[in-house]
Amino acid sequence: MLAIGQQARQAARAMLRATGAQKADALLAMAQLLAEQRNDLQITNKIDLDAGRTRNLEPALLDRLTLSDRTIDLMIEGLRQIAAMPDPIGSLTAATVRPNGMQVGQMRVPLGVIGIIYESRPNVTIDAAALCLKSGNAAVLRGGSEAIHSNLALGNIVQQGLAAAGLPANAIQVIDTPDRAAVGHLITMTEHIDVIIPRGGKSLIKRLAAEARVPMIKHLDGNCHVYIDDHADLEQAATIAFNAKTYRYGVCGAMETLLVHTAVAKAVLPELAHRLITHGVELRGCERVQKIIPQALAATDEDWGTEYLGPILAIKVVDSIDDAIAHIERWGSSHTDAIVTQHIASAQQFQREVDSSSVLVNLPTCFADGFEYGLGAEIGISTNRLHARGPVGLEGLTTLKWVLHGNGQTRG
Amino acid sequence: MLAIGQQARQAARAMLRATGAQKADALLAMAQLLAEQRNDLQITNKIDLDAGRTRNLEPALLDRLTLSDRTIDLMIEGLRQIAAMPDPIGSLTAATVRPNGMQVGQMRVPLGVIGIIYESRPNVTIDAAALCLKSGNAAVLRGGSEAIHSNLALGNIVQQGLAAAGLPANAIQVIDTPDRAAVGHLITMTEHIDVIIPRGGKSLIKRLAAEARVPMIKHLDGNCHVYIDDHADLEQAATIAFNAKTYRYGVCGAMETLLVHTAVAKAVLPELAHRLITHGVELRGCERVQKIIPQALAATDEDWGTEYLGPILAIKVVDSIDDAIAHIERWGSSHTDAIVTQHIASAQQFQREVDSSSVLVNLPTCFADGFEYGLGAEIGISTNRLHARGPVGLEGLTTLKWVLHGNGQTRG
């Protein structure tokens, strides 16, 4: 692992000289290689799938492990899209001129070496490699042990693509041992790894966060709220709440608790509840909700704190926007929260005071996604306060250094 | 400490509602209180000074511990300057409009709770409090035990100023125990402290970094380089190098190693060496330097890696800009490095490839400072890669959250 770290650091330094054209060439070469080696890849993937079946992996896991034609097509398409995006590296901010005439600006530069730890989907190998490469970083990738043959084959294609463009093959390395101790090294090698981005379930991320010495870009929970204000357009509110819950139950931006102002609860809840129940969503509510929706089960404190990621919704009636904000402050996870209102002051108060990485007005929380925000790509969502907050695209994989120009000015 | 952390978190939430006017009022009230309580402050400060003399503190330490009239005037002036600066909080970036009509932008928000750990200067209590307050954060301040009476008296003034402006007094807390275990708690309370900013010597910061669980904004070393290119204006080069070394030996931006292209070494070094030696600077050089400057001692690898913070300079002759960059990569500390050149391609290569938090062209490294960069204030300098990099002003104490506006758009 130390050798991998050192090679990554060395490659990261060489990557500072990579041009945008080289990076695009490497990505397009990878796309080409994926297309050419499709059959070989699928034969290799079968080794992982057979081993998975022998180990009685769940069908959903086996499905995520499969490099189907469709998955490979999506990887190829993703590589081409990222190749076509503008190169973020080397761009300059506006510069200011100081009284002594020196110009002060900032240049966008790579973070350095990124460690990515992910679970069973082997296509993450390509997605993560592409984003790290485009942003000028070196990366060390560590996928799930059940996908190791597939990941190594994909890593091989990535390294061929890098070499074809004259870039250091070690800029992207896939860890080739299933040994779990490797992860322990990866997340503590502060000298060689600059940031860890975990992609996986909450238990994985929690475990990593407890042991990591390298900073992590991560989120644990997506306990997202929609608050229907007393000044809401109620038809719009019902549309937003229904979409926020039902677009996809499993995404981190799915609404888990609906807060409704008492003044509009009776007007908006019955029909919305009917739609949700018909759609198969179980409702759990506070006492006031249960009076309006007889089918709702009693919600407990545990419900307010739970990210269901499934067809369950907690509902609470609140007396004011302040109570709604206080509830989100108490139970939320700083991920994504939304208000539905036509009242400017309510929208402003909610956006200012709700301390989440995304705060939405008159939109469902399920929009929390880098592509939807126009970032062109997404490596994950962060609820960190330092560095990237919210959906993380290419820019989140970069930083700014100061660049100054003078002509011999001196200090003091 | 847990109670302090909880109070800080609660205050941070209340601070989300603070207006710019309230924050300015609080800062001006503190300035007023400092002026009014000047005598009392100096009487309290004498307790620390007497204790320090009894403990035989060095004169330089006692000097830094003293709240002289001049120090108090500077604190008052600093508070007024920060009060007059624009409020960074709540400002919005340009927003983009997505194809479905929703607007995607970002709002500047406080980091949350900042822990500041500093050594003997009690005026840091005021400076740090002012910057944290202006940026909408809560802060927990922990100064040196030798200044505890002074720090608590200043903390009292800060809390009076907060209360006078209707802000929570707990937004700024000074830890009132000299117990060293308090620091250990502060740097591991990830639930209540969002970032630690240490201000002090390298040994303090190294110790904190080894034990911290809370992210830190910090730099360890300032081993700064000036490289004189073969295309340099040699008179300008000598001026820059002399200033970079002699402006102040003790600042982290002071030049510690001078790199000179072999083609101009004989032309620039003799006169520059004479000026430096006359000024009291000891020179240490590689063999080629020693041939040009007979007075130079032999430099060892240890010299290339040392931040002298004193009247010593290491000098090395290099064969190319690539060698200069490689030397900085090997021995530098990612702080501040400069090139002197009239050649555009050399300047561009140096700025792109030198991986430091500040890269200067035709300027001495001693400009590394938030005030010089026009930030209006500085809480410290960071060589981190995540979040703030380089001098950290008010903006470095904030982050951006996503704010989206729609009118009922749905996903999927």
Largest interface: A-B, 63 and 63 residues
Overall mean pLDDT of chain A: 96
CATH class division of the largest domain in chain A: Alpha Beta
- Termini of chain A, distance in Å? 48 Å
What does this structure look like?
2 copies of one chain form a homodimer. By secondary structure, chain A is an alpha/beta fold. Chain A has 2 domains: 2-217 and 389-404, Aldehyde Dehydrogenase, Chain A, domain 1, CATH 3.40.605.10; 224-367, Aldehyde Dehydrogenase, Chain A, domain 2. Helix content of chain A is 43%, strand content 19%. Chain A has helices spanning 2-15, 20-36, 38-54, 59-65, 69-84, 123-134, 148-164, 181-186, 202-211, 234-246, 262-278, 287-292, 301-304, 321-331, 344-353; strands spanning 96-97, 103-110, 113-118, 138-142, 172-174, 195-199, 224-228, 255-261, 282-285, 297-298, 312-318, 336-340, 358-361, 380-382, 390-392, 398-405. A 7-stranded parallel β-sheet of chain A has the order 10-9-11-8-7-12-13, sandwiched between helices. A 4-stranded parallel β-sheet of chain A has the order 5-4-3-6, sandwiched between helices. In chain A, strand 7, helix 10 (234-246) and strand 8 (255-261) form a beta-alpha-beta unit. In chain A, helix 3 (38-54) runs antiparallel to helix 7, helix 6 (123-134) packs parallel to helix 7 (148-164) and helix 10 (234-246) packs across helix 11 (262-278). Chain A is globular, with a radius of gyration of 24 Å. Chains A and B meet through strand 2, helix 10, helix 15, strand 13 and strand 16 of A and strand 2, helix 10, helix 15, strand 13 and strand 16 of B.
